[in-house]
C-alpha cells in the first residue's frame, strides 16, 4: 500500500509543497495554523487515494450499503485519526521535527468538530470509524452545522455559552459536492391528480452535500460522511438590493441558512420547535433522495431496495424517514401503499437511546400538518395499515393531538435495537411494551462500543506501547485479544510498567493543568473523574454531596490518614436546563471553598474543567484513576464514557445501570466498585413516601452536607442560592440521590482503601484493560451487520 512506501522526506516535501502552492505561504512566515493545514493536506492526499480505491471496489461490487442517519456526529479532531490509521506517525513526526515543529502542538491546533451533544453523537463517530476499519460500505448522513455545540466557560461559577465556530478556519477534511444537491420543500398543500396525492411544498431550500472521507485502520477501507448544508434556492434579491433594501434583499438567504446554522436550537419555544422539525426533515429527506438516486443509477427494481440499502435511524430524530420513504415510493414512484410500507420497513431500522418518556420525541399534529401535510396523512394511513395487520390490538401513532416519533420509528422498522442488555430488557417492559407484544422478534440488543484506535491507541500511547510489547499489535482491530494480557497480570514487571504508564499520564495531565488552567494538583493523588453531560439522572449532585461530606469529615479529623484525592468534573448543561446549570454553579462554588481550605486541600481538591469535548476526554481519560458512572439505575441507556475509562485502566465506581452491568460482568466484581439500588429497587423506593427525608435522617453525613449547602457555606454572598437544589433533594428527589448516598459513600471508602495499596490497585486497573476488549465498536458494528443489516465487508484493492 502506498502509505507505507512514503518516507519522512516525501512527507516533508509534500508539507512544503502544500504550504507554498495551497496556502501561498513560505516557511519563514508560516504560523502553526498554516503548518497544520499543510500537514493535513499532505495526509489527506494519501487518504483520498485509499478512499477512491474503496469507492471503486464498491461501484464494481454494487453491494448492500449501510446508511447511518444521525442528527449528530461528534467527531472531534480528524488529523491525528488520519495519521494513526494511515500509519504515518513516524513520517509525520520526523518531517515536522525536521521543520522545527512540535508534533503535538500541530495536532492540537485543530479545532474540535463538535457536531453533537454527547454520547449519541460520539457513538455515531465511533461507528463511522469502525465501519471503515471493518470494510463495510457505508455512508453517514447528517447536518453540516455552521456552529456546533456551544463553547463553555464560567463566569463567577456560572456557565457561559458562546458559539463554537469550527468552520471559521479552512476545513481541510471536507469536499463540497456541487453536483449533489437536493431541493427540500416544506408546507404547502396536498392535491389529488389521477388518483395520486401530489404535495406542492410552499417553501424550498437546497440541501448541498459536503463529504468527509473516514479512513479505517491501516487505510484498508474508507467511507463517506455526507453532511448537508442548507442553502437558498435563489440567491439574494438583486432588484430589492438595487432599491437600497439591503437587509430585505439578504433575508431569504438568511432564512434558508438557519436550518443548518446551529446544533439543537433551544426547543423550549414554539419557533425553536419548528426549526428543529425542519432540521430533522431536511437532512432525512435529502439523505433518502440521495440513497434512491444511487439505487436507481444501479438499475435495480424498486421492490429490491431492501436488498441494497440498510438505513439505520440513530434515535427518533430521523424517524420521519418512515413516512418520507413511503411517500417517495408510493406518491412519487407509484408503488402500492402496502408494498411501499413493506419495502420501507425492509430498509429501515431504529436505535432507541432512552427510556425516559419525556425524551421520546413528540410533535404537535398542528405543526406537523402545517410543515409536512402529506406526511401527516401518510402517518394516518400507516396507523390504519398497522391496525389492519394487528386487528383489535391497536397501538396508535398519535395521541392527544401529538405524533409519537418513537412509535412511528418502531412501526416502520424491521429491527429496533437497544444499546445495552439492561436497556433492551427495560425497553421491552416499559416504553415499547405494547409494540413488543405485537412484534416479539423486532427488538434486539446491540451493546454500544468505542473505537480502540482513538480511545486507546492514539489517546494513550504509553499504555498502547506496553500492550503491543506484551501481546503484539493485533489488538488494535481485534480488541478482545487484550485478554492475552491476563497472563501478565500476575507478573510484577508488567504491573510496574503498567503503573508507570499511568503515573506518567497523570504527570502530563498535571503539567497541562498547571500550564493551561493555572491549577496545581498532586499527581500522586487519586484522580476521581466524572465527565459527561450535566443531567439530573447522571447525578453529578450525588458526587458533589459526597465531596462536601468528605470535606466536613476531613476537617473534623485532619490526621486520620486520608488518601489525597482530586475530584475532576467536566460537562456542559443544555442552555435551557436550569437545574443542570445550578449543579455546575454549585460544584464551582464548592471547589472555591474547598481548594482554599488550608486544612483539607492537601487531601481533597475539586476541579471543574470548562468546555468538555472529545479532545479533553482524550487528554483526561488516560490519566484517570476512578471512573464515576453513578446514574440512577434504569436511566442511562448504555453510556460509552464508562467503556473508555475501563479500557484505559480506570476502574468504575458505579450503579447497575446501562452497560455498567456488562462491564462489571467482564472485568469482575472485585475490580468494580458497585453501589446503589437496582432498576427494580429504584421503582419500589420511589413509591415510599418521604424516601428522601428517611435517607437524610439515617445518615448524618448526608444531613450535614445538605445543611452546609442550604446555610450558604459555599455561597456566603447569596446564602439562599441553592434553595432550589436543596428543596429538590429533600423533597421529591426523583433521581434518588439521597437514598443512594450512604451506599455511594461506602463504595468511595472501598475505592480509597484499594487505592492506598498500589499492588492491589494496579492489578485491578490492569484487569479492567485486559477484560474490556469486548467494548470495541468493531464488535458492535459486526453485531448490527449480522443481526440487523445483513451486510458483509468488502476489500479495496
Ligand atoms: C464519550 C463521550 C461522551 C459520552 O459520555 P457518557 O459518560 O457515556 O455520557 C460525551 N461526550 C464526549 C465528548 C465523549 O467523548
Automatic annotation (TrEMBL):
Domain of life: Bacteria
Keyword Transferase belongs to the record: yes
Database matches in Pfam families: Phosphorylase
Cofactor section: pyridoxal 5'-phosphate
Tagged with keyword Membrane: no
SUPFAM superfamilies hit by this protein: UDP-Glycosyltransferase/glycogen phosphorylase
Enzyme Commission numbers on file: 2.4.1.1
Catalytic activity line of the entry: [(1->4)-alpha-D-glucosyl](n) + phosphate = [(1->4)-alpha-D-glucosyl](n-1) + alpha-D-glucose 1-phosphate
Broad enzyme group: transferase
Sorted UniProt keywords: Carbohydrate metabolism, Glycosyltransferase, Pyridoxal phosphate, Transferase
NCBIfam families cross-referenced by the UniProt entry: P_ylase
PANTHER family per record: GLYCOGEN PHOSPHORYLASE, GLYCOGEN PHOSPHORYLASE, LIVER FORM
Role summary: Allosteric enzyme that catalyzes the rate-limiting step in glycogen catabolism, the phosphorolytic cleavage of glycogen to produce glucose-1-phosphate, and plays a central role in maintaining cellular and organismal glucose homeostasis.
Family in the record: Belongs to the glycogen phosphorylase family.
This protein's name: Alpha-1,4 glucan phosphorylase
Organism: Rhodovulum sulfidophilum (Rhodobacter sulfidophilus)
Classification lineage: Bacteria, Pseudomonadati, Pseudomonadota, Alphaproteobacteria, Rhodobacterales
